[in-house]
Amino acid sequence: MNILVINCGSSSLKYQLIDMSKNEVLVKGIVERIGIDGSQIKYEKTGAEKKVFSKTINNHKEALKEMLDLILDEQYGAIKSLKEIDAVGHRIVHGGEKFSGSVIIDDEVIKALNDSIDLAPLHNPPNIMGIMACRELMPDVPMVGVFDTAFHQTMPPEAFIYGIPYEFYEKYKIRRYGFHGTSHKYVTSRAAELLGKKVDDVNLITCHLGNGSSVTAVKKGKSIDTSMGFTPLEGLIMGTRCGSIDPSIVSYLMDKESLNISEVMNILNKKSGVLGLSGISSDFRDIEDAAANGNIRASIALKAFTYGVKKYIGSYYAVLGTVDAIVFTAGVGENSDIVREMILDGLETLGIILDKEANRAGKKEREISTRDSKTRVFVIPTNEELMIASETAALVSK
């Protein structure tokens, strides 16, 4: 079974074609700058040289058509007919409370996605555009929606409710939703395999650390708490996002800087985090290099980020009671031994003992705790596309 995985942003379309019989990626790439000058298609067939094509691409439908043409191309392609694509799996950021799992996309689902736009105004519209483009160009191919929020729908009310009048939850569904759910679910499943346990038997703390970051408490294979909230702005300090702050800061800044709410929200989402603290970059590699060279602000940014992760790990220990493993994943979590070491330093009292040599040993999947560590620690590269493809294949097979 061949599954096409689609992840649409406002001006981009990421894609992978996966042969599920072998869990093998046939082609992958991204269409960038859709509707913007300088559009290009990055295309990579497994075992072949990566290609970059420059072409004017005005909308997501054109982007999808160009990508499909390449997949079918005699010279570059991986299949001969669209009939060889058995289903399309779409990454959808926000499903609200309506979706606690992946679903076959039909008109009712699309209506529900449109109804949820208020919850994710930057993300859901391009997700919907991608779905509509696929439906038009591939009308006979079944489509599945896989939601970033779905994994966290198992959180109990005491974890997802906010301390505001309950009527606002009832009227507007203001609550903690959590994000990166597809990634947290994938590494939960993989960690269970490495532990030699069933998914339903594992307690984990999963740390998805990248430009956007979140930590999740997993009890018996299910999310019971997570750091991101109503939007991806809450929780950890991130690349450009401020993370959790006193809400009164918003009105204070509006008054002191004569800003409107949109301007303040732009600062909190795009000019804060390690970028705002360091004044250098939102890329953690740049922050680490600058801190190593004595830049005080970069050092503060790095310490503030790792301190925040450490606090979440400690608090989730209290919530879970027992923890089988801590998992690091995503760009920073997988690749930065410095960040991992800073986070775990001082957590020996929780039974976590880092094997520093294993921690620094490359970028592959591995255990980085010592043999006498009561809590095991893993680096597990995330694979959201494979998770989306697996969920899609399972639904379509039914």
Automatic annotation (TrEMBL):
Annotated positions binding Mg(2+): N7, E384
The protein's name: Acetate kinase
Location(s), subcellular: Cytoplasm
Binding site for ATP: K14, H208, L209, G210, N211, G212, D283, F284, R285, G331, V332, G333, E334, N335
Record: residues binding substrate: R91
Pathway(s) per entry: Metabolic intermediate biosynthesis; acetyl-CoA biosynthesis; acetyl-CoA from acetate: step 1/2
Keyword NADP belongs to the record: no
GO CC annotation, single: cytoplasm
Substrates-to-products reaction catalysed: acetate + ATP = acetyl phosphate + ADP
Lineage start: Bacteria, Bacillati, Bacillota, Clostridia, Thermoanaerobacterales
Similarity field: Belongs to the acetokinase family.
Site (Transition state stabilizer): H180, R241
Cofactors demanded by this protein: Mg(2+); Mn(2+)
Alphabetical keyword list: ATP-binding, Cytoplasm, Kinase, Magnesium, Metal-binding, Nucleotide-binding, Transferase
Active site: D148
Role this protein plays: Catalyzes the formation of acetyl phosphate from acetate and ATP. Can also catalyze the reverse reaction.
Gene from which the chain derives: ackA
Assembly with partners or alone: Homodimer.
